[in-house]
Specification:
Blueprint (H helix, E strand, L loop, with lengths): L14 E6 L13 H16 L11 E12 L8 E11 L3 E10 L2 E14 L10 H9 L5
Antiparallel strand pairs: 1-3, 2-5, 3-4, 4-5
């Protein structure tokens, strides 16, 4: 498996949130619009990165997304809830790759990977991941 192909089982992910689908998420085909998938992945990514319990990002820094790839597996239908599952698939010097999947019930409807870079708020340039952030990401790793 590569970073572009995260696991397709919810149990493979250490971080999960549930999002409620809205009627306004649907398009004229009657399914959830593909642009909404990116928003659902964003909700999971933000919950993962900015969880106050974990103290990320380090003070004076912020995370920025450098790349997002989404692979659509199945239609997603309203009404219902979707599970947004996330885990770290790669850790670099200044960045990490987040593997994610969306689940409707036990069905994987989409997967994604995001390259996320830590940047210095003053210089607006990438900065190395501190040891504490690296350790946190290692604890949230997935096999991808």
């Amino acid at each position: 498996m590569t970073a572009a192909e995260p696991p397709r089982s919810p149990s493979a992910y250490p971080h999960q949130i549930t999002e409620r689908l809205r009627f306004g998420d649907t398009d004229m085909q009657g399914h959830v619009n593909n642009a909404v998938f990116a928003t659902l992945f964003e909700s999971g990514r933000v919950a993962f990165l900015y969880d106050p319990e974990h103290g990320l990002p380090p003070e004076g820094t912020q995370f920025v997304i450098a790349e997002l790839t989404v692979r659509f597996e199945r239609e997603l239908m309203f009404p219902g809830d979707v599970l947004v599952a996330s885990g770290v698939s790669r850790i670099g010097n200044t960045s990490m790759t987040l593997g994610q999947a969306l689940f409707a019930g036990d069905q994987c409807v989409a997967t994604a990977h995001s390259v996320i870079v830590l940047t210095d708020l003053k210089t607006r340039k990438s900065t190395p991941l501190p040891d504490a952030a690296r350790a946190r990401f290692e604890a949230l790793a997935i096999d991808a």
